[in-house]
TrEMBL record:
InterPro entries linked: Acyl_CoA_acyltransferase (IPR016181), GNAT_dom (IPR000182)
Lineage: Bacteria, Bacillati, Actinomycetota, Actinomycetes, Micrococcales
Coiled coil location: none
Protein name, per record: N-acetyltransferase domain-containing protein
Membrane-spanning ranges: none
One Pfam family per UniProt: Acetyltransf_1
Length: 79
């Protein structure tokens, strides 16, 4: 599971976040990437090709924010 990914606000939209995800993917191409996020970043994951599913639970730290599970299939899945 991808725990946290963040880019300084001054670099938002520069492609740096996508490069970070690509680097993680290169380390483990035979594993899917799974991230949980909220409304602020769900579009980022969609643009990278992640399948997005809304979750019923909320994060107690931000109870008013919708949560999503984002999954990117493995490049080389095991048979």
């Amino acid at each position: 599971m991808l725990e946290y990914i963040a880019v300084d606000g001054s670099r938002a939209g520069s492609g740096l976040g996508a490069l970070l995800v690509a680097a993680v993917r290169a380390l483990a191409p035979d594993l899917p990437l799974v991230a949980e996020t909220d409304d602020d970043a769900v579009g980022f994951y969609r643009r990278l090709g992640f399948a997005v599913v809304a979750l019923d639970e909320t994060d107690p730290r931000w109870p008013d924010r919708r949560r999503y599970r984002c999954t990117l299939r493995a490049l080389n899945p095991e048979p």
